[in-house]
Design brief:
alpha+beta; Alpha-D-Glucose-1,6-Bisphosphate, Chain A, domain 4; 7-stranded antiparallel sheet
Length: about 180
Amino acid sequence: MRLLRKSLAGFVILVAVLAIVGLLLPAHFKVERSIVIKAKPEDIYAQLDDPKAWKAWSIWVRRDPAMQIAYGDVAHGVGAHWSWRSKTEGNGAMTFTASDPGKLLTYKLEFPDYGMVSTGVLRLEPATDGVKLTWNNEGDMDHNPMNRYMGLFMDKMVGPDFDAGLAQLKQNLEH
């Protein structure tokens, strides 16, 4: 019985220490990737500001062909919206919040099952060999210690998906 009490006490202490450390971790995360595409800015932008066009280059849609997608009434730019349900990629929604055609698109990304909301920016800039497209997403993990631990690995978890999506977009536009 004494061993059981010591084991239980040790487990409680371990959980408490992990929770306290989790609360001390940074709440903010940021993922950012860039690629240079040999295409006109307006051609690239047309693939960004239309939620339906994301199906042609988004890694998440390719990973789950059974993903259920619903689109809002606005087709392009500010107010354009899409939501999805997926057993493998999670449930979420994206709404375009700012638009500067050929230069910038900002979005709000929501994952209600995880209580996560983040902001993303797709920025186009002139480059020597074409157009540099930079994609970033950032947000806060709030006060949930488990989410803060996840935030430490966000770049390693989501960054490769950004790389794959950007590479597919480049391939689609250059060929």
